[in-house]
Amino acid sequence: MIKLFTIRDRNNVQVHGKAGKLLLYGHGFGCDQTMWQQVTPAFADTHQQVLFDYVGSGRSDKQAFSAARYGDLQGYVQDLLDVCDELGLQSGVTFVGHSVSCSIGLLASIVRPELFERLVLLGPTPCFLNHPPDYFGGFESADLEGLLLLLEQNYIGWADHLAPIIAGEVGAVSGRLNDSFCSTDPAVARAFARATFFADQRADLPLVRRPCLILQHRHDALVPLAVGDYCHAHLQGSQLQILDVSGHCAHMSHPQLVIDAMNGYFAASD
């Protein structure tokens, strides 16, 4: 029996608010839309807000996962565009993305620039790999292959190892990340991890024509400060703001800093 998926069910689309400018949130690898729950209340009275889970993540319909479709970031880009089409969105979208969702949002904006008003990019990186002498993403290929090998051999051990690195601490944020990682099907995690960590979108940055706010974590084991500078230099009309925090998830560890940065950016550009 063939199951027919509605996009709202497939991607667990949630719409909050009925008026105001629209914020569309994209979560990072191994996460889901609930990671934004400390940010969204700040915009409840001023914006309509849309959250969703990429297929394979959170409360999405796991049966819709296809290793072929989600073997690279284009499958996740299509998820994002499918959600916009389902909701009849044609313009005026402010996309707020974390980590790999930054690349997903940027790629979607290249495909449909008229859909987006602007993008807020929290912890973006176009490429995790080092490509000396011009680009230092923070990792060698052997480092990333080692992470993927651990994921395949010992998924729980992989989650225990990676969560505090991403969080920048051992505490509530790393515990929540660990729980999220462990709730993800390992086959889905493998596909999303490879698509995330081996993507190279450096050549795509100059093709982006929408304004961007880049929020860079000062002490981030996944994304060195130089990557934020690189994005700023190659994204036309972008602004770069350094958040004085450790880790890769300021929306979870220091949500008020993210809220303040977004409000400042919106006030200056509206």
Label this structure with key terms.
alpha/beta; 270 residues; seven-stranded mixed sheet; Rossmann fold; 7 strands
Spatial order of strands in the largest sheet? 1-3-2-4-5-6-7
- Measured as a percent range, the helix fraction is 40-55%
Number of strands: 7
Rg, Cα atoms, Å: 17 Å
Give your account of this protein's structure.
This protein has helices spanning 7-10, 73-86, 100-111, 141-153, 155-167, 172-183, 186-197, 225-234, 250-253, 255-269, and strands spanning 14-16, 21-26, 47-51, 93-98, 116-122, 212-219, 239-246. It has 270 residues and is an alpha/beta fold. The chain has one domain: Rossmann fold. A 7-stranded mixed sheet has the order 1-3-2-4-5-6-7, sandwiched between helices.
List the helices and strands and how they pair.
Blueprint: H1 7-10, E1 14-16, E2 21-26, E3 47-51, H2 73-86, E4 93-98, H3 100-111, E5 116-122, H4 141-153, H5 155-167, H6 172-183, H7 186-197, E6 212-219, H8 225-234, E7 239-246, H9 250-253, H10 255-269
Parallel strand pairs: 2-3, 2-4, 4-5, 5-6, 6-7
Antiparallel strand pairs: 1-3
Could you provide a short overview of the structure?
The protein is of the alpha/beta class. 40% of the residues lie in helices and 16% in strands.
